[in-house]
Design brief:
heterodimer; A: 181 residues; alpha+beta; five-stranded antiparallel β-sheet; four-stranded antiparallel β-sheet; 6 helices; 30% helix; elongated; B: 578 residues; alpha/beta; six-stranded parallel β-sheet; 23 helices; 38% helix; 18% strand; globular
């Protein structure tokens, strides 16, 4: 039986050091795994950074990849979640011509229906912002397409564990900090 | 959480503050870390450090290799023979890129190396300056850790961390790249050794429940079988390992990196694993009920086809690196931690036992292998000289207390199969990367790292020609390395595969060689060549007894093959004796 590929979100708590991004991406490159999105940011702990990496792979491969990530000297803790184990979002920006807005109410209705919002309205273009699951940002894209999309961008995935604490709790314990609550 | 310092490390041992240049700090740190020998090659971007080394030339011996790759392999040989960290120095650009093969080799074989490279001045970084390469980017996949220094004040922390990481936990190579301006810059020098890093687990804490589980399995096993690797040597666990197998009476086989951790003649030492390993150790992998892997990583050269590997056995894996657990072979009980501590706890929990009948199976296989392969390899009846008989004569003349360094290829397999060892840290070979060109410089490094022992570097005509310029370094350093060239005028291992799997189409494997005797004479190294059996014994004796570097070339069978063999893609039980 061929193991099933599925969507995973890998989370790594790390030091904020030059070159670590490269070190982590090598782990994927070496195994010819495509990273679907990668987000790095500060975490809830000062001085600790967080990588969120979205990949579609088999669980067996993901387990090995996560161990290799955690093995890196500057990684404090790494783990992975299945789709149902995280609350995840992406942010999308859509730039469309202003005339598509002035000619009818349709675009405004679409934006409302999708719970999106106008970020800016300029003379020649408007920018709409939508946060949500991939399927939601894609749905808005499809609805806006007939009006002409001049530019479109979507951020990498950000995700938190669907439980009171995620890996961060272990990181805090590792660093000898008190865990709130 | 307060402000985080740049490298997040815990440190000990302070020295008084003094204003020095970055370059001077580098050399002072080397002394603080106990380095008395390093291997390198000067060049523009590392010249300030070399200038400082001149002031300390009585305390630190710098070995001028003839190529940076040679320097890196020599540092590996030095590290493996001495148990210390090997240190390399190179300039930017080509100097640094020439170290890469050595780094990759050290990474896969867990050899502690600290490489220090010069870099173009920080203002020129990224400008494609003369001799600029992104050595941090290039070396990242082949180092345990690396770091670029652009200010002198970063040097102490970076190097402290480098030495700590290279030698701690699962050892490995690290690289610190220092811009030329940082080497010139003056700062208030103070050195603190690094003892821990908050994001780095040196060794996982031993879980006694896992040890109990392992002991339970071992106590109930009928056909237990131990595979041991370099982890035993790196953890200084040879004594505990021997006590464990002697108490439990378990047959034990070695990976090429674990060779010499247990003396060859030990009754429970059943031989070598892997593609060209012994018959019994491979065949019986698929008959044991408990497989106990200690400090080894189930390399594909050991396991062959994984889908046919030890499927009947419960697997216990004792290992320091959590990423090795379940990487290749699914484990039933993983005992994470340092092999020495794990074995100390395991010994307390296992019952005394013997497995005579099971051990006899290995002996029966030995007998078959002896009849079909070993007898003829060690005592050939044809006029053609074999590699095995040369190794046999080496054993007879050294008594097994020598250090064997090998290059890569047929001679490596033969030398490792037939060498006899009486003490640990006696086998230095490129196991994981299989680096041709490793043997000669690693032999040089080993001879400098263990000056009281007899060091024999066995090389083939192919690998020898990849780094033979280091004969000059051997001459200059007076390293007492004995170089044995087993010359078959072929890239023998590739030719063997071509014969067996590519219809004897010998594509680009025949070597028209230079006159090695004339060449070695040019390096002022005593040399001898043997083409007939009647000359061999006396020549080997002289080779071993000569006090100093010596080169012996033996012309061996051009088309001899190494057997047994587990063909690529086959299971270990499909091992061929002929």
């Amino acid at each position: 039986m061929v193991p099933l590929e599925q969507e995973f979100t890998i989370t790594a708590y790390t030091e904020n050091h030059v070159g670590l991004l490269h070190r982590l991406t090598i782990i994927f490159t070496k195994r010819k795994i495509n990273i679907e999105s990668l987000t790095t940011s500060e975490s809830e702990m000062e001085g600790v950074h967080r990588f969120t990496i979205a990949v579609t792979e088999t669980e067996e491969v993901i387990q090995k990849v996560v161990k290799q990530i955690e093995k890196q000297v500057e990684v404090l803790k790494a783990g992975y979640y299945k789709r149902e184990e995280v609350v995840q979002q992406e942010l999308a920006l859509y730039k469309i011509p202003t005339e598509s807005l002035t000619n009818s109410l349709e675009v405004e209705l679409i934006v409302r229906e999708h719970n999106a919002r106008f970020l800016t309205i300029e003379k020649d273009f408007v920018v709409i912002e939508k946060a949500g699951y991939r399927r939601e940002t894609v749905a808005l894209f499809e609805d806006l397409q007939p009006y002409g999309i001049n530019e479109f961008v979507r951020s990498g995935r950000i995700a938190v564990a669907r439980q009171e604490y995620g890996l961060g709790k272990q990181v805090k314990e590792l660093l000898g900090e008190e865990v709130d609550g | 959480m307060g402000t985080v310092d740049t490298l997040n490390q815990t440190t000990t041992q302070t020295t008084s503050t003094e204003r020095v240049t970055g370059a001077d700090a580098v050399v002072r740190i080397l002394l603080e870390e106990g380095v008395d020998m390093l291997f390198g090659y000067p060049g523009g971007a590392i010249m300030p450090v070399y200038d400082s080394l001149y002031d300390y030339r009585e305390q630190i011996h710098h070995v001028l290799a003839r190529h940076e790759q040679g320097a890196s392999h020599a540092a590996q040989g030095y590290a493996r023979a001495s148990g210390k960290v090997g240190v390399c120095l190179a300039t930017s650009g080509p100097g640094a890129t020439n170290l890469i093969t050595g780094l990759a080799d050290a990474q896969i074989d867990s050899t502690p190396l600290v490489c220090i490279t010069g870099q173009v001045p920080s203002g020129l970084l990224g400008s494609d300056a003369f001799q600029e390469t992104d050595v941090i980017g290039i070396s990242m996949p082949v180092t345990k850790w690396n770091y670029q220094v652009t200010r002198a004040e970063e040097i102490p922390e970076a190097l402290a961390k480098a030495f700590y990481l290279a030698r701690s936990g699962r050892p490995g190579p690290v690289l610190v790249d220092i811009t030329k301006d940082a080497q010139f810059e003056e700062f208030d020098f103070e050195y603190k050794k690094c003892t821990s890093i908050r994001s780095y687990v040196e060794k996982p804490a031993l879980d006694l429940a896992k040890v109990e589980e392992a002991a339970e399995l071992i106590n109930n096993a009928k056909r237990p079988y131990v595979l041991f690797g370099q982890g035993v040597i790196l953890a200084h666990a040879e004594k505990e390992f021997k006590a464990f197998i002697e108490k439990t009476g378990i047959p034990s086989a070695w990976t090429i990196m674990g060779l010499s951790a247990l003396e060859t003649d030990h009754p429970l030492n059943v031989g070598m694993l892997g593609m060209h390993g012994n018959y019994g150790p491979n065949l019986l992998t698929n008959e044991c009920d408990i497989l106990i892997a200690i400090g080894m990583r189930f390399d594909d050269r050991v396991t062959g086809n994984l889908s046919k590997y030890a499927k009947q056995a419960k697997v216990i894996h004792m290992e320091i690196d959590p990423a090795e657990i379940d990487k290749n072979v699914k484990t039933d009980v993983a005992v994470l931690g340092d092999a020495k501590e794990s074995l100390q706890e395991l010994i307390k929990r296992v019952k005394p036992n013997s497995h005579e009948e099971w051990l006899q199976r290995f002996r029966d296989c030995d007998k078959q292998e002896h009849e079909k392969v070993i007898q003829d390899e060690l005592y050939p009846t044809s006029d053609i000289l074999s590699m095995g008989e040369v190794i046999r004569l080496i054993n007879e003349n050294t008594g097994g207390d020598h250090i064997l360094v090998t290059d890569v290829g047929q001679h490596q397999m033969v030398a490792c199969r037939y060498s006899k060892f009486t003490q640990s840290k006696s086998n230095i070979t490129s196991g994981g990367l299989g680096t041709m060109g490793f043997g000669l410089p690693a032999g040089l490094g080993a001879a400098l790292g263990a000056p009281d022992r007899t060091v024999i570097a066995v090389v083939g005509d192919g690998g020898f020609q990849m780094t033979l310029q280091e004969l000059a370094t051997i001459y200059q350093t007076k390293a007492k390395v004995k170089v044995l060239l087993l010359n078959n005028e072929f890239l023998g291992m590739v030719r063997q595969w071509q014969q067996l799997f590519f219809d004897k189409r010998y594509s680009a494997t025949e070597m028209i060689n230079p006159d090695f005797q004339q060449m070695v004479k040019g390096f002022y190294i005593p040399t001898n060549k043997v083409t007939k059996r009647e000359e061999l014994e006396a020549a080997v004796k002289e080779f071993i007894e000569f006090d100093g570097a010596y080169f012996l070339e033996v012309m061996v069978g051009k088309e001899n093959n190494v057997f047994p063999m587990v063909p690529s893609g086959s299971g270990v039980a499909e091992i061929r004796l002929e």
